[in-house]
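Input for the complex:
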Amino acid sequence: MAQNKEYAIETIGLSKAFKDWWGRTKVLAVDDLELKINYNEVYGLLGPNGSGKSTTIKMLLSLLRPTKGVSFVLGGRSDDPKISTRIGFLPEESYLYKYLSARETLKFYGDLFGLPSKVLNMRIDSLLDMVGLSSMANRPVGTFSKGMARRIGLAQALINDPDLLILDEPTSGLDPIGTRQIKDLIASLAKRGKTILMCSHLLSDVEDVCDRIGILYGGKMQTEGYVSDLLRRNDEQQITTSPLSESAISQIREIVEKEKASISIGSPMDSLENLFMRIVEKAQMQNQETSGAVSTTNIGNFLSDDNSQDVLDRLVSADIKPIQDDSFSSEVEKVEPLETPDNSLLNQLSSKSVSIEPVTEITEAPDKNDTQESSSENDKVDTDLLKNLMKGPDEPEGESKELDNG
Amino acid sequence: MANIWTIAKNTIAQIFRMKIALVVILLLAVLLPLLSVIVVGDGTLIGKLQTFSSYGMSLMSLLLCILTIAISCYTLNSDFQDKIVYTVLTKPLLRYQYLLGKFFGILTVNLILLSIFSVMIFAFTVYLPRFTKATDKEIQQADNEFFTSRISMTSHVDTEKIKTQAREKLQKLIESDAPILEGKSRSSVLNALIGSIAMKEKTVEPGAVKKWNFKNVFPKDSSKPLYIRFSFRTVSDTPDNSVYSRWIVGDLSDTDSGKLPDTPIYDSNLRKDVVDTVREIQVPADTIAKDGHLDIAMQNMYYNGVTVIAEKVELLYKSDSFAVNYFRGVALIFIRLIFLTALGVSLSTWLSFPVAIMVCLMVYATGSINGFILDSFSYLSHTAAMYYSLIVKPIIFILPKFDGKYNPTPMIVDGETITWFFLGSSFFFTAIVKSCLIFLYGMFVFKNREIAKITLHN
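Predicted:
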């Protein structure tokens, strides 16, 4: 069966039946799944327990053999061992050798990729710093808390600077700081041209970071689409303002009532996640001691590379496809790198996940993609130029992001 | 190759953190020095040396075999149980590389431990005479019979001749319609007759002389003496539990015609030996004929008044040093460990830890009594020829041989040479052919199995 190289991940009629000792099919964990994930997309696979998320991932990683159907990853068959050099995988729990220290663990996995020791040591330092475990680098992983083990699990998934990152329940067992860090990291990696498939049942996590989601139930895809499209409520509008006087509020009420529309006015509430983050950040500013992981905002340099970060950031955050096909146009546009995180956007996304009072004014919230449209257009010129400058004469266009790996 | 070594290094780290490994290391580190102090043997220096080396090597071999079985079955299973394979096998690592990494990791540990403890035993053995009060004679005896490496030859027994004689006797019994045949199968009577004739070949009546012939006796160093090793049994008790005998050694082929040989003849004169005890007679090497022929004649003195059974008369001559022979003995133990590692890793690809370890222990046990099993099944070959050759024979072939001449301990204890040829052939058949077959089967299973497989119950 020929694969379509347009997609980072593609499954065709993928099915998996679990059988009993007598070979009788007992559970159809995945049923005729047609999954298509574009390059440079953050895709969230959602579903309740036992819906087939992990089974799908395991088939993509050749840990399970499909009963029927076929899957392609990064332009090759998923059972091709060469493909695994470009994949990073974080399983649902951090399955690590307990007797190895954090540094030894990363060294072990890095060695399997045949990385030169200089590069590997640099990456290990960078990743340990990124996941906030530098001070515990020589402690055996077996003594780590679940959250700390999760962090080292994530670091091992990134040791090869993968093009495709498969994350199974990435935030499970993590504290809110870790959760936020992982979400920030996913966003940063996506900006740098990585494709990410994450599966989770923590809806707020998926909502915050994913471009597109698919909801599985009973091994079948129930619905699939862009997060913004699926969540937008077209029957209501939202306006956000700074504090208004009583008279102004009355006037707005009158205007809305004239339009014969209903209105609800109140002060927006901050999310618990933001409140928690503020308190912890404050404690860290005061240099209070902790034996746990330390929150950092660093992203491993090698993941983005490197000195000319601005240029390469734009380069790798461009829409990269292995085959330039006119019939294909990605509907996903990446958020361009900012000097400081876009907290307002994050706050808005986060606030959806908690119960809040109706906001003061109602208007249509600006779409994540829409806000970047103009700058994206401008950058696209630079990207194309840079891509042409930096790729070799015979190099396929899809490989241009390899430059990022240094 | 780099990937295999990465897995191997990690396996080594894993093993040295296992409690069973620490227990084995500790036991050997404590027991070997202790043994060197407490063993006394029969009170003589050679007795002490033989007892210590026998216990030491057996203990080392046993504990390392058990450790190998345990770790080879555990390491793969624990990776599956802890689901570490999910992260390891999603890296650019082929499954055969993973298995080979495990195999070589365990083998490296074996090599390290075997080297340490075999050197320890060697050192204790070599230094034992210095810390033991012994007479010069005892020291001389230890040098000649223990700190040496001697080729052992046994007199050729013509089994075909014995079988022919047995068949002729059976035929006579059938013709005379002897009552002894009633209710018995012919094969059982034939076997009994063969046993009886073979036993008769070993017996020496009072006053009679028994002769053994040896061919192709070519010692490297003709200045070093030859040794005749024997032990007596008697059909009834004797005074002092001893037997008087006289031994004549040399080229006796033409003595019947009254012609003396060119080479000297050795005469032991009258000697008294305790029954059921292994004894050695030292004979000059110039008694061997130029064509490598040597005869040994023994007279059971008439005044013993009892028939003597001369068990396994052996001719020994020095061929190598003790150290080289000891090294070959240790190499034989290493071959066992290679086989057991391959077996444990291979079985763990499809069996859970308790089942895999049980099968491994069974194979180890059957390997240790391989000779007995072979004898048992050879009887089966007469009655169930097809079943034997198609099913039993291949299984017996794949079973390892750890007993008899494949067990180096008695060889080292007796100062007998383990030849390079034997070591090489043993390595080829056990460590290469059998281990590879078993390991390839494991690789085939592992390549085709689903790593995250779930089998549902009901």
